[in-house]
Amino acid sequence: MERIPILRMGEFLLVTIQVDMHDRLAMRLQDDLTEKIAETGARGVMIDISSLEIVDSFIGRVLANIASMSRVLDAQTVVVGMQPAVAITLVELGLELPGVLTALNVDKGMEVLRGTLAKAVEEQGGDRHPT
Amino acid sequence: MIVTRHESLRIQDEDEIVKIRQQARRWAADLGFSLVDQTKMVTAASEIARNTVVYGGGGTVDIEMVQAGDRQGLRLSFVDAGPGISDVELALRDGYTTGSGLGLGLGGARRLVNDFEIDSRPGQGTRVVITRWK
Amino acid sequence: MDAKQKALADLIAENPNTLRAAWMRELAIDVKRTNLMGEAELQGQCQEFLMRLEHAIRHGELEDIGAPSWTPVRDYLTEVSQRRANLGFSPADTATFVFSLKKPLFMYLQERSGNDSMLVEQIWQTTALLDRLGLYVMEVYQKSREEIIARQQDEMLELSTPVVKLWDGILALPLIGTLDSNRTQVVMETLLQRIVDTNSEVAIIDITGVPTVDTLVAQHLIKTVSAAKLMGVECVVSGIRPQIAQTIVHLGVGLGDIVTKGNLAGAFEYALRRVGMTTTPIRSES
Description:
The structure holds three protein chains of three kinds.
Chain A: E1 6-9, E2 12-16, H1 23-40, E3 44-48, H2 57-72, E4 76-80, H3 84-93, E5 101-103, H4 106-124
Chain B: E1 2-11, H1 14-30, H2 35-54, E2 59-68, E3 71-80, H3 88-92, H4 105-112, E4 115-121, E5 125-133
Antiparallel strand pairs in B: 1-2, 2-3, 3-5, 4-5
Chain C: H1 3-14, H2 16-30, H3 39-59, H4 71-87, H5 91-99, H6 102-113, H7 117-159, E1 164-167, E2 170-176, H8 181-198, E3 202-209, H9 215-230, E4 234-238, H10 242-251, E5 259-261, H11 264-274
Helix pairs in contact in C: 1-3, 2-3, 2-6, 3-4, 5-7, 8-9
């Protein structure tokens, strides 16, 4: 069965989408990711879509769902690497992914995740200190 | 308007939506569409193809290169024999859906192309024709 | 005026209606896109032209159509050509307006001379051939001119969208001149691509040099900002003129939650802070 691999990097999960995703594969990613977040207690999810040539309303919805579901599971999702042509098309389509954090690339996505995590820890007055 | 190249494809399931996308991309690139124009056309094709599969129960798509005067374009005609749409105006409105989607499919696709035609008869099926000019 | 010239003028003066009818028949055959102009307008043009032509032939020199006696004819041809260009006639179809008068005129001349119809026919064939070749050359010339203009327009579009790097992670796009829908789209795509290429975090769109903004352009700007946001980049719009602010409010476009700053300096300062920088004055050593 075709699957998109999910990598674990410390507190974060990293997914790189490199294929033209058909709908079932996207749904499976949604299932696998939520399970993996619960299983590992990950605090952040990064989805790299820089190889994705289109995002239609279905894939857009899956991305938004993953972000909402992971938030319920206490993890932040950041979508990184969206191509300009894809972004222009999504805006025209009327899909602006509200509630989904975005970053230009994997490096900047990591900064975003660390930043939101540090802020959350600060607000909770917790004792976790991410590096 | 004359047709300079033509191909017919079946769309019965989700895997074939991917095939339609790839074929639309190839033809748009052959026509010399810019990357943004390619992406818009392929995304529109993906939306309509999914409608054909999910709501129309599958159907066919005709991919055509067309020429009208000096301009060239890519035209995709999706035909299904499904239940049809009883209120086309409503179906084109953003946010309207009878399924589980965001309801951006038809209306969104219309914004991504230059010409958009829809002809639907309840009980007989739906035909959607989208064209993007170079 | 020599006798031949007078005979030509007389010929037109004596048969204005039959000549015009024969001419219009020729035009109907030679001009491909007849649906562009109504019958009545064409008839009026033919009639007016024949009148002015007759007058010019009677009172001027045939060899020099630049002479003052030909001014009414030239003026009228200018008017006819401009009208046809506006209606979408090709250069060749436009020139055919004049050339197609040849055949009817030659036929009348042949009738007059009454002899050696073979020679007249040969002259007619030759001149018709050369006319067509001449028209072809003109058509090709015109086409290549248009291609040059189109290419220059493209180059100007590229030139007029200079995306500049102000700091590590900060891009600026100073827009100057009137924005139309087409140009705004090119600008939008260029900016987003440069954001990726330069690995930037903030983009400033400065519209100080833009005199007016219509609904479409305002929407394009908003779409650019939204697309950048999807890519994880923040856009700041600076230099919105008071008139443009009024237009935007009147049009009801609304800039949503887009960050705006009065001028480029303000936007730059904001952008610096976004990438973790501040500006402080250099303390002078005393």
